């Protein structure tokens, strides 16, 4: 995918303003798929049986902190219609 940029556009938000949207379909077609199946709730509860300590973490804040390998950064490039 080297040398290609994903296209971008702006879509109106429901309550005003604009949201930038980037089309990563081309990148998704060549990406290596990793499978991490979500376990069933019953299986998770069984695994917790007998546990003494529990903790809570906020995963939402980590979504935008996913590291990208330096050799793959060019794949996340995008272009807007008005230039770079």
Summarize the structure.
It is built from two helices and three strands.
What does this structure look like?
The protein has 84 residues and is of the alpha+beta class. It has one domain. 17% of the residues lie in helices and 18% in strands. The protein has helices spanning 25-30, 41-48; strands at residues 6-12, 18-23, 78-79. Strands 2-1-3 form a three-stranded mixed sheet. β1 and β2 form a beta hairpin. It starts with 5 loop residues before the first strand and ends in a 5-residue tail after the last strand. 0% of the residues are buried.
* General form: elongated
How helical, in percent, are the residues? 10-25%
Number of helices: 2
- N-C termini distance: 19 Å
- What order do the helices and strands follow? EEHHE
> Any idea how many domains?
1
